[in-house]
Write a structure and sequence with these properties.
Elements lengths: L6 H11 L1 E3 L10 H4 L7 E2 L5 E2 L1 H11 L3 E7 L2 E6 L3 H11 L8 H12 L2 E2 H7 L8 H13 L4 E6 L13 E5 L1 H5 L10 H15 L5 H8 L1
Helix pairs in contact: 1-3, 4-9, 9-10
C-alpha cells in the first residue's frame, strides 16, 4: 500500500500520473488502491457497517480535484487528469464512432443532452429499460459509452437516512463531457493516432515494469 491519505492528495497524484484505475488494473502498483494508505482501505465493522475512505473520496476528486471519472480502463472505473483527457477522448472516439441513429446508445446520449445529468436508475427509466432483467443490459450500453469517452460521472448521489446522513454505495450522476467541461475540453487538435502514441509513450515511461501489451490494452 502507499502513503496517500486524503482525497486532495489522490487528486494531486492523478494530475501527476495522468491516468489511474480505481482498483486492480492488472499492472502491479497501478491503481488508486495501490497508492493509498492502509487506513484508507475497505473495512467491515462488527455491527455490519463499513467504511472505505477511498470510495468516499471519488466525488470530491471529480467535483473539486478537476479529474475526469468513469469506466475508462477495460470497462473498469478510474480517473483521468484534465491534461490527458483530450488525448484519451480524441483516440477513443476515433475507434468508437458516434452511435447509430435509433440505437440504445444514441438514446442515452440524447436523453443526457436533454436532461443535463441523471443517476443511472433515472437514465435507465428515461430510456425505457424498466423491466426486471434490463439493468445489466442497460449498464453494458452505458459502459460502452464511457469507454468511448462520451459519458462521464459528474458526481455521486447518496440516499439519506432518517437522520439526514448519507449511506450506501451511492449512485453515479452521469452526463456528457461536453456538458460538464465544454466542447473544447474534449478536443486536442492532433490526429487520433498521435494522441495514442503520446499516451503510450507516457505510460511506458511511467510503468517500466509493465509490458507494452498491458498498456495498449488499458488505453486502447
Amino acid at each position: 500500500m502507499g502513503t496517500i491519505n486524503s482525497g486532495a492528495a489522490l487528486a494531486d497524484y492523478v494530475h501527476q500520473v495522468g491516468f489511474l484505475p480505481l482498483i486492480d488494473s492488472g499492472i502491479r502498483g497501478f491503481s488508486a488502491m495501490d497508492v493509498v494508505d492502509d487506513d484508507c482501505g475497505y473495512v467491515v465493522f462488527p455491527d455490519g457497517g463499513w467504511d472505505w475512505p477511498l470510495w468516499k473520496w471519488k466525488g470530491s476528486i471529480v467535483t473539486e480535484g478537476d479529474c475526469v471519472y468513469g469506466k475508462f480502463f477495460a470497462g473498469k472505473a478510474g480517473f483521468v487528469s484534465r491534461e490527458w483527457w483530450p488525448h484519451l477522448c480524441n483516440y477513443r472516439r476515433s475507434v468508437h464512432p458516434m452511435p447509430e441513429e435509433g440505437s440504445i446508445e444514441e438514446a442515452v446520449l440524447s436523453t443526457l443532452r436533454q436532461e443535463g445529468s441523471l443517476i443511472t436508475r433515472e437514465l435507465r427509466a428515461a430510456c425505457g429499460f424498466s423491466g426486471p432483467k434490463m439493468r445489466s443490459r442497460f449498464d453494458g450500453y452505458v459502459t460502452r459509452l464511457q469507454m468511448a469517452c462520451r459519458v462521464v460521472t459528474e458526481d455521486f448521489v447518496y440516499p439519506l437516512d432518517k437522520h439526514g446522513r448519507e449511506y450506501g454505495w451511492g449512485w453515479s450522476l452521469l452526463t456528457t463531457p461536453e456538458q460538464l467541461y465544454g466542447r473544447e475540453a474534449c478536443q486536442c487538435g492532433i490526429a487520433p493516432q498521435e494522441s495514442f502514441q503520446r499516451m503510450l509513450s507516457h505510460l511506458c515511461q511511467l510503468l517500466p515494469h509493465a509490458s507494452e501489451q498491458q498498456i495498449r490494452r488499458m488505453i486502447g
